[in-house]
Amino acid sequence: MEPLLRIADLVKHFPLKGTGHRVHAVNGISFSINKGETLSLVGESGSGKTTVGRCVLGLIRPTSGAALFRGKPIGSAWNVRSPALRGKIQLVFQEAGESLDPRMSIWASIEEPLRQMKLARDKRRARVREVIERVSLPPSVLDQYPFELSAGEQQRVAIARAIITEPELLVLDEPTSALSPATRAELIDLLADVQRELGTTYLLISHDLSAVHQLSHRVAVMYLGHLVEEGTLDEIFRTPHHPYTAGLLSSIMLPNPELKRESAFVLTGEIPSPIALATGCPLAPRCPLCSQRCTEAFPPSAAVTATHRVYCYRHDEVARRESAIDIFGAFQRFAERVLSI
Amino acid sequence: MTSNAVRIAEKHGTGTAADAATPVIEVEAVDVAYRVYGAAPKRALRGVSFQIMPGEILGLVGESGAGKSTLARAIMRSLPLGGRIERGRVRFLGSDLLTLDEPEFAKRRGRDLGMIVANPRGDLNPLLPIGTQIVEVARTHLALSHSAAVRLVLDILKTVAIPDPERRFHAFPHELSGGMAQRVVIAIALVCSPKFVISDDATSGLDVTVQAQILSLLGKLAREQHTAMLYITRDLGVAANFCDRIAIMYGGQIVEEAPTNLFFSGPEHPYSNLLLAAFANNPRLRARWGAKLGRVTPTAGDPTCLFADYCVKREEKCVHAPLPLKQRRFEGLVRCHFPVLR
After folding, report:
1. B208 and A253 in contact by Cβ < 8 A?
2. Could you say which of B177, B211, B277 has the minimum Cβ distance to residue A339?
């Protein structure tokens, strides 16, 4: 079966004007998302996650490779602006407040995609009322303006505007990062509900690993424009095989002082500049397991299971050193025990 | 901290040796209100009290609007226009900070009291190399020659794990990543080896990996130099992993305070439970502790519980009787008529 979205050997480099240098944002990554599932792209800032998202939407043209939606490459001729694809792929931005037009009422903002699709007025009216209820906002917000709403309400409006066209694919770019803990929890629930009811496919771009854990079926870990590990939620969070994934997981801090994923791969330093890339594994300068061959060529894909692949020469060693624990699962059991009295 | 920096710090009486039995900072019943033109003053803090011992890290956790930053700025005597400390005392190693005259306090701010803020780039001067900015702080407070100050700054840059300090000394803020800029702000706060440091949401904008590195750096400083630290955050997870004690703030009050492990083995204030539930992936648990969190504005002279309207354990008494301050079952304090006992 053809997956809903397939990323095939996607490369995106941005030339730096007048210098002859280029920013190597994405360097040949491949993955696919099946209908109805959530795939999360995780990694530090600067790893190229958002660039992948923008290629999926057809907002920028890949240097080589392609993002294929239902088998057809998204590009300059066929993208979210073309009538045939309009409304099928939608986007929720990080800063909902800034993605809403300050001079349009909430009603007008939510209705806008349907106007673009030339829907009749009474149909639009009915749909707006439907989605505003779906995102649990009172109808009174429809007459308000973005500045009158809280950050959480604005993010709900952004989701309402995205789902009003009944998209098949929703690209969520850091949807939770600007929210307070309670609002964040409610938004995660809402996204899970929407997917359950409408069967929408999500591409979630986030460095909020707790949100990723709650929403995803599969996880792809990116580092400096490369995919370094991909697998099901459990495979990535329980048995990471890449030192970078293990390092990321060990820096998660959960609200319980006893829950910490101890790791031999604590990450030091920061993600290097994507302008002058060295050959070999991009993590090599930060990796405690780095050996000669790691600096010579990018490691080939190794299959851990049918659904779990990793790009590391020494992934067996990583897996051996890491204890297979799921700290999020442990935290939920802790919360259940302490809070349900 | 390198030996050079310690030597300089000790010479200037800001040294590392502190009496382990006296609190570094004591905040006693502090009230802060903001005056609003043509309206009643808004009370931002109500009777906030706590103390921090040498080497101890107190985590102050609350949502936006709870009064966390107001507290930090009240201690540093840098409240925004209209803000005033109405009542209370802030003592630093026994001496009252609030009665000092401004020139006297200015000598301490930056030397004895350090502050790290959330937006490092906004805090740095874009027109000056970072080394110059740190040297300026060092020379203002410590009677150092320029070359001695430069040596001290190179030391402190090494301490905060900035690679290649000799080169970075001449870098401008825009040339640094967010994590590096944050380290520079930490270096400024620490260059005079203060005995007390406030960190206001300093790591929230960073990647988790960089956050972990910066926290381990701050933790090491607290342990090795016995710096007392007030760590302000919205993230209960960071507080759990980094702080020795937790204080939960709601509506300008500390509603619960306890050692970290005791706090997490059973929060007693209903609001603390609700906050913890917000981090668990479980709508049922959240519903169990009440639906809504949100900003509250305390009204003038309101002695009753501010959380009552949202509380699942609310009873008649909560709305009428003045709020008590009780001992927690094992250790710590809770401000509630009906604390949750397990």
Report:
1. yes
2. B277
Residue-wise pLDDT for A283-331, tens only, equals 998 898 899 999 999 999 999 999 999 999 999 999 998 887 888 888 9
Chain B residues whose CB is inside 8 A of the A189 CB are 283
pLDDT tens-place string over residues A129-167: 999 999 989 999 999 999 999 888 999 999 999 999 999
User: Could you tell me the CA-to-CA distances from A187 to A180, A181, A183, B161 in Å, in that order?
Assistant: 10, 10, 6, 37
Token duo for residue B174: 């825009």
A341: nearest CB among B274, B279, B342: B342
Report the percentage of chain A scoring pLDDT > 90: 65
- Whether pTM exceeds 0.90: no
Task: Using CA atoms of A73, A77, A82, A88 in order, give the dihedral in degrees to the nearest 10.
Answer: 10
Domain boundaries, chain B: 1-106+232-259, 270-334
What gap in Å lies between CA A56 and CA A188, rounded to an integer?
A: 23
Q: Provide, as residue numbers in chain B, all residues whose Cβ is less than 8 Å from the Cβ of A258.
A: 261, 264
Residues of chain B with C-beta less than 8 angstroms from the C-beta of A286: none
Residue of B201, B281, B282, B313 to mutate, interface with A, max A Cβ within 10 Å: B281
Q: Are B141 and B111 in contact (CB under 8 A)?
A: yes
Tell me B20's DSSP state.
T
ipTM of the complex: 0.84
Q: Are the C-beta atoms of A192 and A214 separated by less than 8 Å?
A: yes
Token pair recorded at residue B155: 């030391």
Put the strands of the sheet holding A5-15 in their side by side order.
Answer: A22-33, A5-15, A64-69, A72-73
Chain B residues with CB under 8 Å of A256 CB are 240, 264
Q: Does domain B1-106+232-259 have CATH number 3.40.50.2000?
A: no
